[in-house]
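[Automated response] Your request has been received and processed.

Submitted sequence:
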Amino acid sequence: MKKRNTLNYLSKSVLLVLIFTLYAALSFAQDRVIEIRDGKEFFVHQVASGHTLYSLSKLYGVDVAAIEKHNKGVENGLSIGQTLYIPVPQSYDEDRWENPIRIENGFMIHRVQRKETLYSISKEYNVDMNDMLGLNPGIELGLKEGIELKIPKQIEIESVALELPETAEDSLETHIVQAGETLYSISKLYGHRVDEVVALNPGSELGLDIGQKLRLPEVREDFMGEAKMDFKLVLPDSVMIKEEYVVSLLLPFYLESLKGDIELDSKSKRLQEIGMSFYRGSMMALDSLKKRGANLKVKVFDVSSDEDVDRILSRNELLGSDLIIGPLQKSALMSVSKFANQRGIHIVCPSISKNNILLASPNLSKVKSSESSHIKTMAKYVAKNHSQDNVILINSMDVSDARKVQLFKKYYGEYTQNKADSAQRSLIEFTASSKFVGDLKGKLSKFRRNVLVVPAGKDSRSMIANLQTKLQLLEAEDYDVVVFGTEDWMSFDFLDTAFKNKIHLCVPTSLYIDYENEQVKALLKNYRNKYQTEPGDYGYLGYDVMLYYGQALLQFGLNFPNEFDRVKQDGLLHIGMDYYKTGIESGFENESTVLLRYNNFKLELVHGG
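Generated structure:
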């Protein structure tokens, strides 16, 4: 009964078009090169972003096992640029081809295959047949196999340009190699994978030299101010404002499991819960937007795996979208982002906080603020509100925390450099270890409030637990202590609630919900009545994301990314929206961050919101 009710939720809104598709071959727009090896024919394939063994097996019509047999190690994962040798199946027909065969002058070029009709092609690309007739004179008399057709697009590639300042600098962070450093240690320091660093620094995998500059997949902090310059996407006026906007919503529903066909593991079940909550919240916002005059057509897609994305993209089902929200999973998101950026469609990432997904994705906006924004907000708050207190920065010396420590000192120093000298002197850096705090008592003051700033995360659990023990032993003595941690601290079960209340633990985060707010109460009541369940964080997030971007389209049409600072935020319940462009060729981060403090055994808002 529960499974049946869940499916009913998906079918309630008449505005939704829930799309189910069959598996189809994914076109990677590569010419099929055949090479003879040991007397056998093989396709030579270069791996690109989004390619999986499954999608390659469908594209070339062979089993995954056959690809693994002839390409040692691929079962452990594929690398961009990797060359694969895929056996040519006996059924291969070299007279067939993959469409579209190319992009030319802003149009996709489709080569007609046997039995195709004008109607079937228009449906495949989701375009109007009259538009096709206008671009391809003579096809009204009939189609012939092999002729090439121009396919109209919603926004031509040539009509999307980026206005850049004449002397635009590279927005990427750089690192100067020191003695003893390796690719692994540098990647760990900045929180990236080794292959991400190598991709930006060809040849670095062969060894590093002292003093060598490495480009990192992260936007320079000092570039952020520059990036707020007028970098605008130039769109043709004819498509700025539309009578109806198509919003594609890509979420992990795992629909096959709802039918009882498969059993999900715990991680997949959690993703399904998140997807359902986000969807329901979005539908609540859609009802509100209709009352405000917004005409939105929402298409909903089940994206539970990379194969789902491959299938959707290969069938061109996202063509015609004016806005794409999701997917939630990183690999799926990057595949859809590449598709969206090539076609000038704005795409929203609701769930990932790291900024590296914004690189080379100018049409992507990221809803959750990054760790850098969290540290920046915390540093400025401490500098402004605790300048007369005894501020102690505890450095865990763990490589995973080093970046956070550097950022805190940078932003704290920037705020206090023009203030009184006493404020500048009040910051004391105390060196701990990833497991033990050490003798902290000697740094504490009995005459001033002690503000402990601990920019440490999950890898420093032992040190944080040790800090709790040390501070609990001080309870009998007359010390006034306040602690600032990171968002990770909210999920640490070993931190005692009474302890967090005692030290008035303060943490930065992206999301905050005020259950005393009348609008929140109204939404909660309506949500419970409609879905017989609680919204949770992702229900509220789905509501805010759909409401904000729906209002953006209603106000500014397709030009809304250039007007982020003017988009109305009326009715947002869970998250603020404060977007800035992270780089010339990169996307937008929402840097809105709130500070929450434990007080009277509950979390209260002390900054932001």
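Summary generated for your ticket: Residues 358 and 587 are 5 Å apart (CA to CA). The two ends are 40 Å apart (CA to CA).
If you did not submit this request, please reply to this message.
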